[in-house]
Amino acid sequence: DGGITQSPKYLFRKEGQNVTLSCEQNLNHDAMYWYRQDPGQGLRLIYYSQIVNDFQKGDIAEGYSVSREKKESFPLTVTSAQKNPTAFYLCASSMTGQGTYGYTFGSGTRLTVV
Amino acid sequence: QKEVEQNSGPLSVPEGAIASLNCTYSDRGSQSFFWYRQYSGKSPELIMSIYSNGDKEDGRFTAQLNKASQYVSLLIRDSQPSDSATYLCAVKGDSNYQLIWGAGTKLIIKP
């Protein structure tokens, strides 16, 4: 079945560490997105990518980095520069072009600083 | 700045009643509108999409769109406790593929 796979489901980070969250999709979607969600809050866009080898900053990109070397994969690195990384991270994908396409989400990664 | 506004709630509705969720948007050029349901600790899932003015029904769910007044609503008939969740409204303009998200309305269905 087609879908988006995020791993790991839970991740613990020590102070000063970089950690990488995985996101893989087999929907043949061109666009992929990373969102952060804090308790009781809405979705905030971190990075997005429309095509391979190209990505743009969202509203809260500071302290995060991404790569898009393959259409199927869009990993997110939370760097030590992100001072408050504890949150629920969601990856999504969508088709692009003319048309009315929603997003498909992965199951999320819950990151906790220990 | 394109915005999507939702009442954060919580909205409390008795079981079996109609739950009405509302969303307003600022970009008059918006073309597509989506309602997502998010259970606590889970990822959002798409439940309704609407593109034309008027009503669109799918089972117990009805989406209503009024582009002139720039609002979209979601009605849930015969509300069940399993409908208790946060409902996110998302809007797409005609210039790109990105969705603009509301902060969500928390719905509580009381048995």
Summary, kept brief:
The complex is a heterodimer of chains A (114) and B (111). Chain A has 114 residues and is mostly beta strands.
Question: Secondary-structure map with pairings?
Answer:
The complex is a heterodimer of chains A (114) and B (111).
Chain A: E1 4-7, E2 10-13, E3 19-25, E4 31-37, E5 43-51, E6 54-57, E7 64-66, E8 76-78, E9 87-94, E10 104-105, E11 109-113
Parallel strand pairs in A: 2-11
Antiparallel strand pairs in A: 1-3, 3-8, 4-5, 4-9, 5-6, 7-8, 9-10, 9-11
Chain B: E1 4-5, E2 11-14, E3 19-25, E4 32-38, E5 45-50, E6 54-58, E7 61-66, E8 71-76, E9 85-92, E10 99-101, E11 105-110
Parallel strand pairs in B: 2-11
Antiparallel strand pairs in B: 1-3, 3-8, 4-5, 4-9, 6-7, 7-8, 9-10, 9-11
Helix-strand string of chain B: EEEEEEEEEEE
Question: How many strand segments of chain A?
Answer: 11
Strand count of chain B: 11
- Pairing-aware structural class of the strands and helices of chain A? mainly beta
Basic shape of chain A: globular
Q: Give the N-terminus to C-terminus distance of chain A in angstroms.
A: 36 Å
Please work out how many helical segments of chain A DSSP would assign: 0
Computed structural class of chain B? mainly beta
What's the overall geometry of chain B? Answer: globular
Low-confidence stretches of chain A: none
Percentage of β-strand residues of chain B: over 45%
Percentage of β-strand residues of chain A:
over 45%
Structure annotation, total helices of chain B: 0
The overall pLDDT average of chain A reads 93
Uncertain runs of chain B: none
Largest sheet of chain B: 6 strands, mixed
Chain-averaged pLDDT of chain B: 93
